[in-house]
Specification:
- The protein is built from 18 helices and 2 strands.
- With 451 residues, the chain is mainly α.
- It has a single domain (10-416), classed as Hydantoin permease.
- The chain has a two-stranded antiparallel ribbon.
- A hairpin with a 2-residue loop joins β1 (97-98) and β2 (101-102).
- α2 packs antiparallel against α10.
- It is globular and about 65 Å long.
């Protein structure tokens, strides 16, 4: 494939694999999303929800993981059919424009700027872990060590290396977490089917609504991850291999083939992160809720470590620290890689750079790879409340998710060619997803405004 996957040319056309095994070779974009999802959503927001509410809101995280994937599939489908970057697609939404771009692009910029708090909170979590491992390293120093390392990795990181690093980072801690969940069986915190069933009755305690709202915005694939999926689908080559739309039957056949690959990529990742999310939540509900410990402030990592030491014994704490470092760092790594592309795309839509000029895009990504982590560090050192920062990011993620839903419906009903109109069942499931996201977001807004 040529150097720039954002430009569709006949030279990059490749026939899609037709066999299941062949499709497996082209999976990858959702692995990067999973590296981002498994960090802040699962380790902090999901376990905090479990610690605060117990088993009763288990259904929230399951629904959160399952319902959003339809929106992700529609975004991926539009990416393959159009070859457009995410913000290029958003700039085509109806509505007013000013300052050189559409309202939707400006709104994404505003939301993402507030969501930087979430990454600042995660930087704080990683720095706290380093400080716990090596107390002689001051927390301020640890913060800047973290952001320098993540900036270096992304500064010259291209798609292939980002995909491989993300996969390795999530594998270790996932195995460790399932091991801890299994060994709860031999402790006083053993799970029972009755306790799990109590979390599947669709109850929602008012006292936990803010955490529920934030967790819904983060767990599973969130609004920002759905947007970021666009860039990874492009850089994996799904759109480039489909080629420019010449209206031919051959192009339609290639597009359908690569859409099938994308569907497999997204659905397999959904299975993985749903299982991991469930494991994190159950650990929080079974251990932290019983202990009455809700992770907060600088004690967040110490509190979370109890989930593992209660199951695997005190000797598990160093392994937890290593594992939690890996999973939180994976979020910083995957998020920075995506945000450098998204902000560059936004700057392109605002006319500040030419996003489709490979040299300008690479230069913007390189600069942002250093600028964004510096902002994260400053935000954390100013607020010093990592859990609150993550929850605020989750709430903003829920707002962003509503905008993504609007964009998705626009793609489906106004920009999908007749040859690619889905079947009725697909549309019904898509609307179930849209309704679930909208109802939870609306309920969350109402409850937050009343408290």
């Amino acid at each position: 494939m040529s150097e720039d996957p954002y430009i569709l040319t006949p030279e990059n056309i490749k026939e899609p694999p037709t066999a299941f095994r062949g499709r497996l070779r082209y999976l990858g974009p959702s692995f990067i999303l999973s590296a981002s999802i498994v960090g802040s959503g699962e380790l902090i927001a999901t376990t905090t929800l479990g610690a605060k509410a117990g088993f009763v809101t288990f259904w929230v995280v399951i629904v959160s993981c399952l319902v959003k994937v339809m929106v992700q599939l529609e975004m991926g489908k539009h990416t393959i059919l159009s070859g457009e970057s995410a913000m290029k697609a958003f700039s085509a939404l109806p509505g007013p424009q000013w300052g050189g771009s559409r309202w939707s692009v400006w709104l994404v910029l505003l939301i993402q700027s507030v969501k930087l708090l979430q990454l600042g909170g995660i930087v704080g979590g990683v720095a706290i872990i380093l400080n716990m491992i090596w107390p002689q390293i001051p927390l301020v120093v640890a913060v800047f060590v973290v952001v320098i390392v993540v900036a270096l990795l992304v500064f010259k990181g291209y798609y292939g290396s980002i995909e491989k690093i993300s996969l390795v980072l999530i594998a270790f801690f996932t195995i460790f977490t399932f091991t801890a969940l299994y060994f709860l069986t031999y402790t006083d915190y053993a799970l029972t089917w009755d306790s799990i069933a109590s979390g599947l009755r669709f109850q929602l305690p008012v006292a936990a609504v803010a955490v529920v709202f934030g967790a819904f915005g983060i767990t599973g694939v969130g609004g920002d991850e759905i947007i970021h999926y666009n860039y990874w689908c492009l850089e994996k080559g799904y759109a480039a291999h489909t080629g420019p739309n010449d209206g031919s039957p051959e192009w339609q056949q290639r597009a359908r083939g690569w859409i099938k690959v994308m569907h497999l990529d997204a659905l397999l990742a959904m299975v993985i992160y749903t299982m991991v999310t469930a494991a994190f939540y159950l650990l929080g509900a079974a251990v932290l809720h019983v202990q009455g410990r809700v992770p907060e402030g600088y004690e967040v990592i110490e509190s979370l470590s109890n989930m593992y030491t209660a199951s695997l014994g005190p000797n598990a704490k160093p392994w937890f620290l290593l594992g939690s470092f890996v999973v939180l760092f994976s979020t910083l790594f995957a998020a920075l890689a995506a945000l450098t592309r998204q902000y560059s795309d936004i700057f392109g839509q605002l006319g500040w750079i030419d996003f489709l000029d490979l040299r300008q895009r690479k230069r913007s990504i390189a600069i942002l790879a250093w600028a964004l982590p510096l902002l994260w560090a400053i935000m954390f050192l100013f607020m010093k409340l990592p859990v609150l920062m993550v929850i605020i990011g989750g709430i903003m993620g829920s707002i962003l998710l509503l905008l993504v839903v609007i964009a998705t419906l626009h793609f489906r009903y106004w920009r999908t060619e007749a040859a690619f109109k889905p079947k009725l069942v697909y549309d019904l499931v898509l609307w179930l997803s849209v309704a679930s996201i909208s109802m939870v977001a609306l309920y969350g807004f109402i409850q937050l405004s009343n408290h």
